[in-house]
Amino acid sequence: MRALADDRIKALVFLAVLYGLVMASPSWAILGVTVVDEDRIVHAEAFRGTVEKALDQLQVPIDAGDRIRPGPDAPLAPGMTVAIERAVPAVIAVDGHQRVHRAPARTVAEFLADAGVELGPDDRVIPSPATPVKPDMVIRVIRVRHEEAVRQVPIPYETRRWAEPRWEKGRVGVLRPGRPGVEQQKIRLTYEDGLLVRQAIVERTVVEEPRAEIIGIGTRIVVRTLETPSGPIRYTDVLEMDATAYYPGPESTGRFADGRTATGLLAGHGVVAVDPSVIRLGTRVYIPGYGIAIAGDTGSAIRGRRIDLGFDTYREAVHYGRRRVLVYILAD
C-alpha cells in the first residue's frame, strides 16, 4: 500500500510539471482575436496578454483620442472582438479661447461632451449640435445670458389748441405748459459672449400720466380805427401781403375774357382777388395807396398771403406793378 501511494504522488508531480511546460509553450497560449478598426476588420492570433499588447503585436497604431473597447488594460479572452473608434481633430472656440481637440464623436454635441464643454440652456452652437463632425472643422460655442433690468422713460405730452375768447384775435400763446409723463419699463437684456445684442420690453407701467400742453388762440374781435386820406376806417385785423396789379382787358386776361369775377362782380378798380382760406370772399378791405375794395375774385396763382388788385386801365396796372402792402380787414 505504501508503494502504491508513492507511485500516485510521483504521477501527480509529473502531471504538474508537464502542465507547466505545456502552458509555458507559445503554441498552447494562442487566442483568436478580431480587431475592428473603423471600416477595416483584422482577424489574427495573439499571445496571451492584454488588449494593448495584442494591438502592439498586430502593429495597429493608436493615436491620442482614439477609443478602444474593451480598454487597453483588458485581458484577452478567446474569440474577443476589439473595436477601435478613430478620433477626429476639430477646433473648439469657446469662452474667448480656441483649442484643438480629438475625439471619436459622431456629432458636434458628442464632440463637445467629450471635450468637457458644458452648454447652458440658452447657449448657441455653430454648427448645430446634430451636425456630423468633420476633420478640422471649427465649432463655435456662443454663451447666451439673460438679465432683467428696470428703467424709466418719459411719455411725450400732446399739444391741444383752445379758442380763447378773452384774448384778442391773432394772439397765440401757451395757456398751460405741458408736462411729460413717466413710464416704468421692465426689460429683458440678452448678452452673447458678454456683448448686449438684444433688449425687449416685457412689462410697462405708467408711473405718472402726461399733462397736455394747451395753446390758446385768441378769438375776441377788437375794432380799431385808422385815419386815412379818405377819412377814418374801422378794422378788425391787418395782414401783410404781396400785392400784384391786373387789368381785366385782353392785354392781361386774353381776348375771350368777359371781365366777370368769381362772385359775378365786374372786374376793375375796387375788386381784388384773394385766397378764400386767408380772406373770405365778400370781405371789405383797405389797402394804403389803393383804397377800399371788396374781395370778389380768386385766381390759380393767388395762394396764401397774395392779393391781386384790379385796375380800370392797363397803364394803371403796369404802373402799380408789384408791392408789399398792408391789408386792413374792415369791420362790418
General description of the model:
The chain folds into 4 domains: 2-85, Beta-grasp domain (Ubiquitin-like (UB roll)); 88-142, Ubiquitin-like (UB roll) (Roll), CATH 3.10.20; 146-218, Resuscitation-promoting factor rpfb (Resuscitation-promoting factor rpfb fold, Single Sheet), CATH 2.20.230.10; 221-330, Barwin-like endoglucanases (Beta Barrel), CATH 2.40.40. The protein contains 5 helices and 21 strands. With 332 residues, the chain is mainly β.
Entry summary:
The protein has helices at residues 2-24, 51-57, 108-114, 250-253, 314-320; strands at 30-37, 40-47, 67-69, 80-85, 88-94, 97-103, 124-126, 138-142, 144-155, 159-168, 172-176, 181-192, 195-208, 213-220, 224-228, 231-246, 271-273, 284-287, 291-297, 306-310, 322-330.
How is the biggest beta sheet arranged? Answer: 6 strands, mixed, barrel
* Total discrete domains: 4
* Strands, total number: 21
How is the largest sheet built, in terms of strand order? 16-20-17-19-18-21
Taking pLDDT < 50 over at least 5 consecutive residues as the criterion, the unreliable ranges are: 1-28
Distance between the termini: 166 Å
Share of residues in helices: 10-25%
CATH topology of the largest domain: the name is: Barwin-like endoglucanases
- The CATH class designation of the largest domain is Mainly Beta
